[in-house]
Amino acid sequence: MSLPLLQVQVPWDILAFMLVAALGVVAARLVLVYSRRLLEGRLARNEVNALSRALALLVGTAFIVAGLPLIGVDVAGLLVLGGFAGIVVGFAAGSIVSNLLSGIFLVIERPIRIGDQVEVEGVQGYVEDITVFSTRIRTYDGKCVRIPNEKVFTSRVTNIVAYPARRVDVSVSISYGDDIGKAIRVILGLAEENPLILKYPEPRVYVDRLADSGVELAVRLWAPTQAWFEVRTQILKDIKEAFDREGIEIPFPQLVVHQASE
Amino acid sequence: MKHLPEGRIVYAPLPPVFTPGRYASHMMIEFPVQVLAPGERRRVYLKFPIDVGVFLERSGRYVLVDAFSLARVKYALYCDPGNGVLARWWRSDAYTQPPMVDPDSEGLMELEIANGGEWAKVSRAVFSCGGMPLYYSSHAAVKARMEVKGRWAETYFLESPPLEGMARAPDPGLGGEGRFEMRCGI
Questions:
Q1: For a Cys staple, A153 with which of A51, A102, A130, A171, CB 3.0–4.6 Å?
Q2: Could A164 and B76 be called an inter-chain contact, meaning their C-beta atoms sit closer than 8 Å?
Q3: Lowest-confidence segment of A86-90, B25-29, B141-145 by average pLDDT
Q4: Could you read off the pLDDT of A142-193 as tens digits, one per residue?
Q5: CB of A145 within 8 A of CB of A123?
Q6: Does B84 sit within 8 Å of A165, measured CB to CB?
Q7: Is the pLDDT of residue A252 over 80?
Q8: CA distance B164 to chain A (A)
Q9: Among A25-29, A63-67, A104-108, B86-90, which is the least confidently predicted range?
Q10: What is the complex's ipTM, to 2 decimals?
Q11: DSSP E strand boundaries for A73-187
Q12: CB contact under 8 A, B89 and A195
């Protein structure tokens, strides 16, 4: 008696598909881990999880679709269907997708961070939150402004606190009868006394304009960015008080009228 | 009004970056130009400003509750505004022997300048105050080193008391890098 010979045909196509699918799983896992690492701290935790999973799912699906022809599945129809669906979604949810993509690019490029003081679309304030769809700004007068990420991404964004020091620009007028050198020395002395007016870059005071009512002095000082407002308000007060002490006149607008004699 | 738990109040010197607020983590000392020959090592003594820390101590652990300075306070930017760091600024003479310091407002730095390049002119030193090992007894003191490497230099503090019997000041928890690369002029 002889045993029947069992002939096994190796399904190489199925094995190849499974290999591609396994690679897809590994790639998706890597995307999940690295996207989480990249986004952690830049977005809220729930958004990090959602976005990482979505990216991983996208990568995994791409691998599986790419492997389908190996087991004889025609993906041409699937791709046409996907393309058509893409166009429909693109039209229907164009702004949502645009905001989402802008949000992702904002998170990667990081022109602004939570806590920064910024100016976007004419809105000034503190960045309170950056989500995948919008950026929330708390204005200096305590209002909350939500700006879609598409606007943040495509418009001019000024980050006021990007650098450690910021220049304070002040303009002061003195009368034509006053000693310009003395006025400049007084202002530079005040700058030297103020601990938050930086030694370097050096403060500069110079005649900026010979105006109608007086000589305009431009004052250029540098201060720590965090103390910019404090320094600006303090130096204006100090200049006024010092000029009063030193007898330097801050002129009112005036017009000299000559009357023709009879 | 601060409500503090039980403990001992301790006054100790602080790195000079706590007043009038936390704006900087570095210290810049300017001193008369030192010309160093290639390979030369020179020890100079500098004065630097200190802040005074008010610590609460309990079971050997310290927490900083307040800080003030009796020294002149002035800050400066080292480097350009785009890449610079804010530093507490101070001007000092460069002494060959330890000078007298005002213990309430000044500390004494023993700085070793090592020139590893060609002829060098050095007139300032910028330090990162992260982990600055301040020691004190009748006055505050610190040891530091500046390694000149051509047009730039690296600075750092040394973890050893400048004089026997000096106590290590409590760590105010500044954190950050202890070394600093002076890439914008020395």
A1: A102
A2: no
A3: A86-90
A4: 999 999 988 888 889 899 999 999 999 999 999 999 999 999 999 999 999 9
A5: yes
A6: yes
A7: yes
A8: 35
A9: A104-108
A10: 0.91
A11: 117-120, 123-130, 134-139, 144-148, 157-159, 165-174
A12: no
Structure letter (DSSP) for residue A217:
E
- Coil, helix or strand for A38? helix
pLDDT recorded at residue B156: 96
One-letter-per-residue 3-state SS of chain B: CCCCCCCEEEEEEECCCCCCCCCCCEEEEEEEEEEECCCCEEEEEEEEECEEEEEEEECCEEEEEEEECCCCCCEEEECCCCCCEEEEEEECCCECCCCCCCCCCEEEEEEEEEECCCCEEEEEEEEECCCCCCEECCCEEEEEEEEEECCEEEEEEECCCCCCCCEECCCCCCCCCCCEEECCCC
B window 86-115, beta carbon within 8 A of A: 86, 89
Interface test with B, best of A199, A220, A230 (most B CBs within 10 A): A199
The predicted pLDDT at position B167 comes to: 92
Instruction: Please name each of the domains of chain A with its CATH number.
Output: 12-92 (1.10.287), 104-159 (2.30.30.60), 165-246 (3.30.70.100)
Tokens of A53: 């999973």
